[in-house]
C-alpha cells in the first residue's frame, strides 16, 4: 500500500511541480476575492474569503516557522548602522525603496545550486562585482524575490549582510504567505 503511494508521489513529482501549482491555483480561483503568487522557488498562495479571514499556504523550507498572521500588509522597519558612510546609507535607501515598491510575501527559501555571485558574474562578467561588495538579491528570496541575475545587484557587504539579517528577524515570526507592505529605514 505505501509502496504504491510512494510511486504515485514520485510520478507526480517527476511530472513536475506544475501539476501541484495548477491544482493550487484552481483551488485559489474558487474563492473570491483571491490573491496568490507563484514564484520560481515554489508557490505561495493567499486566499481571502468573503468573510475577511485569510488562509495562507506555502511549500518548501523556511528559515523561520512563524505563527503570526495579519489581515493587512505588514510594514518592515530597518535601521542604519551607526558607522555607515553616506554612500552606504544611499545604497541601503535604494534597496529599501525597491522593497517598498515590490509586492513582497514571506516565502520559504531553499538555497541550493549555484550561488548568487556565480550567477551574476556569469551574466555580467567576473569584474562586475567591486571589492568589498556582495551580490544582493534586490528583492530578497525570503520576500518572494526571484533567484535570477535581473534581481541581483552588487551591494556593499556591510549593507547587504545587515539588511538581510534585519529583514529575516523582522519577518521570522510571521507565517509563510504573509504580505509585507512598506519598508522603511531610520
Order of strands in the sheet with most strands: 1-2-3
* Mean pLDDT across residues: 76
Radius of gyration over all CA atoms, rounded: 19 Å
The fraction of residues in strands falls at: 15-25%
Q: What count of structural domains? A: 2
Total helical elements: 5
> pLDDT under 50 segments (min length 5)?
1-63
By DSSP, the count of extended strands is 8
Largest beta sheet, briefly? Answer: 3 strands, antiparallel
Measured as a percent range, the helix fraction is 25-40%
Structural class of the helices, strands and pairings?
alpha+beta
Order of helices and strands: HHEEEEHEHEEHE
Which term fits the overall shape? globular
**Separation of the first and last Cα atoms:** 58 Å
Description:
- Mean pLDDT is 76; it is low at 1-63.
- The chain is α+β, with helices and mostly antiparallel strands and 186 residues long.
- The strands form 3 sheets. Strands 1-2-3 form a 3-stranded antiparallel β-sheet, covered by helices on one side. Strands 4-8-5 form a 3-stranded mixed β-sheet.
- It has 2 domains: 2-58, no CATH class; 74-185, no CATH class.
- It has helices at 2-14, 18-29, 86-101, 116-124, 157-171; strands at residues 34-39, 42-48, 54-58, 74-78, 104-105, 133-137, 152-156, 179-185.
- Helices cover 35% and strands 23% of the residues.
- Helix 3 (86-101) crosses helix 5.
- The protein is globular.
- The protein contains 5 helices and 8 strands.
